[in-house]
Amino acid sequence: MMxxxxxxxxxxxxxxxxxxxxxWSILIVDDEPGMRNFLVKTLVPRCHTVHAVGSxxxxxxxxxxxxxxxxxxxxSLPGQSGVAWLKTLRGQxxxxxxxxxxxxxxxxxxxxxxxxxxxxxxLKPFRVPQILNAIKHCFDCARLLRENYVLKHTLSRQSDTHxxxxxxxxxxxxxxxxxxxxxxxxxxVLLQGESGTGKELVARTLHQLxxxxxxxxxxxxxxxxxxxxxxxxxxxxxxxxxxxxxxxLFYYAQGGTLFLDEVADLPLPMQAALLxxxxxxxxxxxxxxxxxxxxxxIMAATNRVLQDEVAAGRFRKDLYxxxxxxxxxxxxxxDRKQDIADLAAHFMAQLxxxxxxxxxxxxxxxxxxxxxxxxxxxxxELRNLIERSLILGELNVSALYDMSAPCAPSxxxxxxxLHTLEKQHIQAVLDSVQGDKTRAAELLGISRRTxxxxxxxxxxx
Length: 461
What we know:
Rossmann fold, disordered N terminus
């Protein structure tokens, strides 16, 4: 018979078993009470949730309401047989793992079970290590699939963020000192700062220093997804039978960190759904009745001032307070110019072997140019400049100051109004590419959306 509620008993202390899957939910379907009790006793201390029922029909009722990662399924059942139900499940789109167990098996039954989509096949009676090893094999397969997806997802972003926290300014020294402490807690982290200041790099560093470092780091740019895409991308999507058809990034970040970049661009309805997920540690795939337990740490970032977005009604106040348990503000490069020389040298050392080119020597005159410039695209713009300069064979100052050739800095006082300098430079870059904002954003090292927002502020056509 069905347990009235899921069984849950997390293992702690010296009783913690060697093999455990604390994020997994398992369904046992067997008409023998003794076998159900044996499996429940074995699995409850090792798993997040264990359901136990006596028939395929009862199992189908559980799947209507609960997410299940793995089913331990007896072949000989009253009513619909285990193999027949497995075929139905696969036809409905169930993608979890299924271990078939039976006391009466021959070669033909085993072949039929594997063709139906069984992950493993075990003969009764069996010992505890046999079932645990079968579950471990399924868990390892799921972990490898998740890691493969995360790797492909990360590579598709084509972002070079593994640059280290470079710089000797007081701000960078303080940041490096604070990160190990922040990394050890599970609290959400909100990173605020202009585009190109290294928010994703800081998030990755926090993940690498945290107890979750062995789990995945899953970044997602909220600004790059449409309102229709974002909910499916984060939470997944279910079939008409409420079985998961497509897993979301919350699922792939299980046991690790989910990094929500440009979180201010989330539409208000999605902000409400995210708040529920953070509060309940559960997600509901689009089109599903199932709630899926999640074990992720959330980090978020934005290049806007979220307090202003809240005041303007574009961002939920409750979500803002939920995200900013730990709030970190990253300074723009113009406010920590002591780091420019170190960053330039670092980017040079990083890019030279990749491009197969000779390094450039940055003279004091070159550094004067770099120190005077306001860097609206921050470290990302500096990296782009170093890469272009390596390709051209000399420091590409014209890309900064719209000159036909480099010249010494003027002896007359340089403009000190950073807002004016930034505006003049962005307009010069736009003019140089005949108003192509996509190309201008690439040259500046900022997103097109950021460029459009600044252009609108200055009434730039």
